[in-house]
């Protein structure tokens, strides 16, 4: 999955953003916590729902629009590999 272009989905399975999976290493620390087996590290390239809430928030990032151009944690079950890209 690392290096793949993906679509990020919210809890209603609606697309909120597009990005690239940077890591699934469970020991790597992102946003102050290990990726573990639930999350993956994603670089956000585009958002179609800028006010969608992040699953994991920090002092500077609360919504998807705050995370454009940065790396965040996203729940793996809500990451869809973009086969069209």
CA-atom Rg in angstroms: 11 Å
The tally of beta strands, per DSSP, is 7
Residue stretches low in confidence (pLDDT < 50, at least 5 long) are none
The count of helical stretches stands at 1
**Biggest sheet: strands side by side, in what order?**
6-5-2-1-7
SSE arrangement, N to C: EEEEEHEE
- Biggest sheet architecture: 5 strands, antiparallel
Number of domains: 1
Q: How far do the termini sit from each other?
A: 14 Å
Mean pLDDT: 94
- Principal-axes shape call: globular
Can you give keywords for this protein?
single chain; 85 residues; mainly beta; five-stranded antiparallel beta sheet; two-stranded antiparallel ribbon; 1 helix; Transposase_23; Transposase Tnp1/En/Spm-like domain-containing protein
Question: Which helices and strands appear, and what pairs or packs with what?
Answer:
Blueprint (H helix, E strand, L loop, with lengths): L4 E5 L5 E9 L5 E2 L2 E2 L4 E9 L16 H4 L3 E5 L3 E3 L4
Antiparallel strand pairs: 1-2, 1-7, 2-5, 3-4, 5-6
Describe the protein's architecture and organization.
By secondary structure, the protein is mostly beta strands. The protein has one domain. 5% of the residues lie in helices and 41% in strands. It is built from 1 helix and 7 strands; from the N terminus they run βββββαββ. The radius of gyration is 11 Å and the shape is globular. The mean pLDDT is 94.
Structure described in brief:
The protein is mainly β.
């Amino acid at each position: 999955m690392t290096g793949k272009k993906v679509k990020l989905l919210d809890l209603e399975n609606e697309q909120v953003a597009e990005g690239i999976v940077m890591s699934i290493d469970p020991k790597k620390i992102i946003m102050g916590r290990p990726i573990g087996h639930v999350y993956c590290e994603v670089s956000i390239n585009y958002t179609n729902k800028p006010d969608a809430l992040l699953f994991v928030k920090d002092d500077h990032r609360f919504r998807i629009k705050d995370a454009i151009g940065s790396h965040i944690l996203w729940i793996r079950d809500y990451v869809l590999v973009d086969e069209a890209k």
